[in-house]
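PROTOCOL LOG
Step 1. Enter all chains and additional molecules of the complex.
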Amino acid sequence: MTVTVHKDVVCTFCGALCDDLEMHVEDNRVIDVKNVCGIGRSKALHGDNDKPECRVRGQQATLEQAYDAAAEILSRAKSPLVYGFSSTVAEANRVGVELAEILRGGLDNCSSYCHGPGVLARQHVGLPTCTLGEAKNRADLVVFWGANPMESHMRHFSRYSVQAKGMYTPLGRKDRKMVVVDVRPTPSSKNADLFFQVIPGSDYEIATVLRALVCELPLPTLADDSLVGGVPLSKWKELVALFKACKYGVVFFGIGLTQSQGKDLNIEQLIRLVGDCNRHTRVYAMPMRGHANVNGNNQVFVWQTGYPLAISFNRGYPRFNPGEFSVIDMLNRGDVDAALIVATDPAAHLPHTAVEALKKIPTIVLDPVNSLTTAWADVVIPVATSGLSAAGTYYRMDNVPIRLRKILDCEWPADLEVLQNIKERVLDAKDH
Amino acid sequence: MAAKQGFLITVRTAKQGSAMERGKYSADYIAETATLTLSPRDYQELALKEGQQVRVRSDSGQVLVTCRSAEGPDGVFFLPLGPTANELIGEQTYGTGVPSYKGFTVEIETAED
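Step 2. Run joint prediction.
Step 3. Record the structure below.
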């Protein structure tokens, strides 16, 4: 059997979207991957192999039967929820938004419970940001706050930030200072020039004190040995000196900030700190987005509705209210009477109360692999895997769109095609 | 029986991410997402043995996990993201849409011998 080598394939695990993978394909299967991290390798080797059975209420079904059942459930629902999309292409996101509008339902994506607070903070204070290419070519100071890329975005250091060699950083690691702020030592912090081990939940306080230091405001109640977030003030002054001395700094923030006490307020204060640093030099901030196209969800939702997440169409026009129209709140309150889940696995990612609420209502799931949700969903529709057997657009964590190619054949349709089929049937049901 | 109160934080681990992509029914994924990391002192104070199961309770639920010791703060426990951790997470999102995945009180309890 011939082995075909595909170069510059995009990895679809995390928001770093490494686009230099080399995939070796034999007999329509990926048999080897080069230029890839451990998680990306697993995804490439297994992402298109374990297709669920096409099922309606536990019985094997044809695609047509599954489309009909999905359309019937959604058309009959008074308050359906369309949710997910973090691992599918922007083009499918667009049809998902359209479907939610037609259904006058709720619409949310996976950023709702990960980087959503960062998205909210950006609405309040904006975001001085850059691309990963600029970080690679220019950054002489990189700060990772509440993020552990060595385990979550494994090639971030080598491709974009810490070790990457760029136009003004030809020596890579030697041309940069690296700082980590986290609640425990991690494989990432072991690489850092400066590591701040902080008390959980103290990020807002720390960012506030750092702002005062950057702005040279008096801190009369604090001495050099006073602890801020568990770290002496004198050590924070070292970080401020690094910020002021750098030519180009980038603060990469993770869900250590968005999912802990303070949430969106943590990010607001961090962004303000970065803004203050720009009185002295150039410093930018960037979220370490997790799922590969979760940023694309925010992009597409904003184009189509004006809002990035937590949307309701129940009055016929989009309304936005996190905490009310967010997936977890909607499910926990029992506000949803049917759900269409696309390219995510709520049974693995949502709190158990939300999962129990989903199990009580008719649930339709589109997934390229067997998941914890496909085990009990009322309608299960297997789909092609984005970036392996389906093409389309993903958005990298720095808002750069990257085109995914199709390198494998798949007997199942892509999310886009499935959503279009369901949409047409829902429109037919509304007409009759 | 020994017990200890602390703060639970859910995390991504390289092993959890990699096993998740191999399949959520894989033994590796199930084992890794039910493995709690404690500081060496907490591990010692609970007199834990390798592979020993403990019960973790929160206001929202309880689970059985195995424990490992790693460098980190005392009184803070780390559990990989996944269905086991989700049993412990409360439903309150404080108007943000995000429940406290990182930072809520739990109690660890070793089983009776």
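Step 4. Note key features.
The CA atoms of residues 24 and 102 of chain B lie 22 Å apart.
The domain at 3-110 of chain B is CATH 2.40.40.20 (Barwin-like endoglucanases).
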